[in-house]
Amino acid sequence: MSEQTFLVLTALAAEPLHGYGIVQAASVLSDGEVRLRVGTLYGALDRLCADGLVEPDREEIHQGRVRRYYRITDDGMAGLIAEARRRAHVAGIALERGAAAGAAPASPATEASA
User: Fold this and answer.
1) What is the pTM of this model?
2) In terms of CATH architecture, what is 3-100?
3) Using CB atoms within 10 A of its CB, is residue 102 exposed (0-12), middle (13-18) or buried (19+)?
4) What is the 3-state secondary structure (H, E, C) of 11-32?
5) What is the Rg, in whole angstroms, of the alpha carbon atoms belonging to the chain?
6) How far apart are alpha carbons 25 and 10 in whole angstroms?
7) pLDDT exceeds cutoff 70 at 72
């Protein structure tokens, strides 16, 4: 699962969101590291809908424009949880190997000043 897909599913796990809401949530979740472009987002949403992981929730008119909201499906949530567990497992191995090699873990304060 790509990082963009992982972030989209994670954003939608909290609540149904429209496109711009998903873009904002992905940015927050990634601490500003990932900025989804509109074309990338809607391509991902089309793929996720086709795969049954996301589905349209509702449409609203906002300032004369249609906002389509999306929600994660049960299959999408199961896939997200499986991927999160896989990533956590791999991250744990990386941390163990780093510690075994004598690398000191970076603290949030250290990372912020880097």
Assistant:
1) 0.82
2) Orthogonal Bundle (1.10)
3) exposed
4) HHHHCCEEHHHHHHHHHHHCCC
5) 17
6) 9
7) yes
